[in-house]
Write a structure and sequence with these properties.
Helix content is 69%, strand content 0%. It is mainly alpha-helical.
Length: 253
Amino acid sequence: MQPRDPKPGFVAEAQNDLVLSFLAVRRMLGLLGLFLPLSLLATAILTDEPMRPSISEFYHGQGREFFVGTLCAIGVFLWSYVGYPPAHRGEAPTDKQVSRIAAVAVICVALFPTGDNLAPPGQVMQDCSVFQCLVGENISRRLHYLAAGIFFSSLALFCLVLFRRDGGQGQDAEKAARNRIYALCGWTIVACVLALGVYGVVYAMQDSVGKTRLDRSYLVFILESIGIFAFAISWLTKGKALQPLEALMTKTS
């Protein structure tokens, strides 16, 4: 007696569940990206928490739970995201490879915080994380910036390369519209990273007065927020949560 083939309905249901799972992960990543800057900004507005020069420095205040918790959640969802398998043998990088790299990087951003520019000069850090205390403040700061650079580079790679692949099936009008959104988000992330690099060079050349003036401009927080919002929009688009934006891009093509 020949074994029965799986019922078509069961196969379709399994495939639908897989698609819905992918969409849910993508949408959650997008929502977490929107939540992070907004939650920290709300913390500064609604509490006695001072506005910080950068997103990372909220680690040293009342926004720590939002900062660490959201970054770790993003890391978990990125690690669980496998994306599509390679369209052909040897295709690289794959969604899974880049998402795993980004996941490790963003968790390292949370575990190795940067210094507190609002602390009085010479003050010994009292709220260092376990990893920061183990490696020291200077090494932790360097690891933080390195991990942040890898994370943002991975996000740009998703937008400019991985999300824009068509799997060899060509592009229809909707796919072309989504690709324009991905490209806009990707180049926005690249521009923010480059601007932050220039800012860092200029900042290092300043005296204490100049550094305080730059800190009060909150330019780093603004650039980081723009980059994270671009990340959020790209993943929400990939999760089919921004249909009106896709329709608008289709009409303007």
